[in-house]
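Here is a protein:
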Amino acid sequence: MNIAFFTRPKQEITYLYSDCTVRQALEKMHSTSYSAVPVVDREGHYLATLSEGDLLWFIVKGEGGEPHTMAIESLSGVKLEDIGLNTHKNQPVPINSSIEDLISRSMETNFVPITDDRGIFIGIVTRRSIIKHFYEKNILPHE
């Protein structure tokens, strides 16, 4: 089975550019109700997954890591690329990976970022879509 079967294309999902501001990210995540979204650079390379927790801890720690909160107005001047995105969390899976690799990665997170052979972000595979596929294929026919 091919990973492409499960992939929701980039055009159909919410993602952020690394040069958008923290305030823009908060607004986008609030309007879509997503708790985590992929972050890409302007060339389309996947960089990281941004979570609500990442934003919360950035705001709580404030500039310079001091334990205080930041004013919402100041979030308009800070770009995502400047907050120290965790690039090791939720690593992408290349489109030509095995289905076993995809399933293994999906056990760790709600969605798996998918890249092409150049590292360009092309979409995501949700854990829900994998479970739904195997449920419909293996459980429903037996009922």
In short: The helical segments are 22-32, 52-61, 99-106, 127-138. Residues 59 and 69 are 5 Å apart (CA to CA).
